[in-house]
TrEMBL record:
The lineage of its organism: Bacteria, Pseudomonadati, Campylobacterota, Epsilonproteobacteria, Campylobacterales. It is an enzyme of class 2 (transferase). PANTHER family: CARBOXY-S-ADENOSYL-L-METHIONINE SYNTHASE, TRANS-ACONITATE 2-METHYLTRANSFERASE-RELATED. This is Carboxy-S-adenosyl-L-methionine synthase. Its EC number is 2.1.3.-. Pfam families: Methyltransf_25. The gene is cmoA. S-adenosyl-L-methionine binds at Y43, G68, C69, S70, D92, N93, D118, L119, N133, R200. GO terms for molecular function: carboxyl- or carbamoyltransferase activity; S-adenosyl-L-methionine binding. Catalyzes the conversion of S-adenosyl-L-methionine (SAM) to carboxy-S-adenosyl-L-methionine (Cx-SAM). It catalyses: prephenate + S-adenosyl-L-methionine = carboxy-S-adenosyl-L-methionine + 3-phenylpyruvate + H2O. Residues 64-159 form the Methyltransferase domain. CDD domains: AdoMet_MTases. One of its GO terms (biological process) is tRNA wobble uridine modification. It comes from Arcobacter acticola.
Length: 244
């Protein structure tokens, strides 16, 4: 069975008037796979690249953590593509997401240790690889720097951190053009201007993006020796960081 077959519900969350801030609640979780595919440009390609780069570094019985694993799509794909046996741990603080993750993992026969916890409260001991796609952007800036330091400290020597983020530009003209380009992308994915503006408001002060340079600085300040952008589409970027 292909992963796309399992969650087919279409994202209509922002078709109605929304008064609350964006949350990873039951309603969002129930359509999340569709939401990501239609809201993150080249999501599948970014996931494929993250997994391919990850597999190059992984050896038998390595421990892999996915921080903000949502419905576990990435860990399931990783286990299908890596030839080695891995210890997979997915952490998320949304029960609605983890319920779906658990069902999907079972359906695909993939063993994943799913942990319902806040990323600030758990350790990621002895990790060879830590993945975190589009999650750091939801962590408050001061906490984010601390979390990245914890990620660095938790990795084995030569450990790898692969993460993706929505990014902004420090040039206001380019930033505006990038946002316009992104909203055009959303329209091609079937989202109306009303849905786009409602989601933008709901994400205000919830999703806090950094520039590409700020992300790299945060990584190097935490102690990583190398950080590189392996994929970028306008305001969405994927990075790989290496611990010496
Ligand atoms: C955009 S989604 C991540 C998508 C996922 N990585 C993927 O590629 O399928 C962000 C996830 O991070 C989780 N999250 C946000 N803040 C968190 C925190 N402080 N602790 C644990 N999980 C958190 C949310 O519940 C949500 O499932
Ligand atoms: O910025 C937006 O409008 C988005 O829809 C992006 C984004 C993300 O980058 O995580 C925001 C929330 C959802 O988790 C899915 C996609």
């Amino acid at each position: 069975m292909h992963l796309d077959k399992i969650s087919t519900m279409v994202d209509k969350v922002f078709k109605k008037s929304i008064i609350k801030q964006f949350e990873f609640d039951e309603e969002v979780a129930s359509v999340f796979d569709d939401m990501l595919n239609r809201s993150v440009p080249f999501y599948k390609e970014m996931q494929r690249l993250s997994i391919n780069f990850a597999c190059n570094f992984l050896e038998e019985n390595d421990k892999v953590y996915d921080l903000g694993c949502s419905t576990a799509s990435t860990l399931i794909e990783l286990s299908k593509h890596c030839k080695n046996n891995l210890k997979l741990i997915g952490i998320d603080n949304s029960s609605a997401m983890l319920n779906r993750a658990s069902k999907k993992a079972k359906a695909f026969g993939v063993e994943i240790d799913l942990v319902n916890a806040d990323l600030h409260d758990v350790s990621f001991d002895d990790a060879k690889l830590i993945l975190s796609n589009y999650t750091l952007q939801f962590i408050r800036p001061l906490q984010r720097e601390k979390l990245v330091k914890k990620i660095y400290d938790s990795l084995q020597n030569k450990g790898i951190f692969i993460f993706s983020e929505k990014v902004i530009s420090s040039n206001s003209t380019l930033n505006k053009q990038s946002i316009d380009e992104y909203y055009e992308f959303k329209k091609t994915q079937g989202y109306s201007e009303f849905e786009i503006s409602q989601k933008r408001e709901a994400l205000e002060n919830v999703l806090i993006p950094y520039t590409e340079e700020e992300n790299k600085k945060m990584i190097l300040d935490a102690g990583f020796t190398h950080c590189e952008t392996i994929f970028k589409w306008v305001n969405f970027a994927t990075f790989i960081a290496i611990k010496k």
